[in-house]
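Changelog-adjacent note: as of this version, every example in the card shows the full chain rather than a window. The one below runs 72 residues end to end.
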Amino acid sequence: MAEKEKKVKNSENAVQRYFRETMGELRKVNWPTGPEARRLTGLVLLVMVIVGLFLWGVDAVSGALIDLVLGI
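Full-length structure tokens:
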């Protein structure tokens, strides 16, 4: 049996081995359920909005401070 595995590994090239190993790893993944994926997607969108508003505020304040310092 070990000889057969050696023959398979020797006859396949690096690309074939990459895809075979990738598919093997993807089978091990614990995929989220539909509701869990929707909940996590909503959480990511909410965090994006909060971070975007924070960065907008920092930009507005720093822009106003630079205008004040430069006298524009």
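Structural remarks: Residues 34-70 form the longest helix (37 residues).
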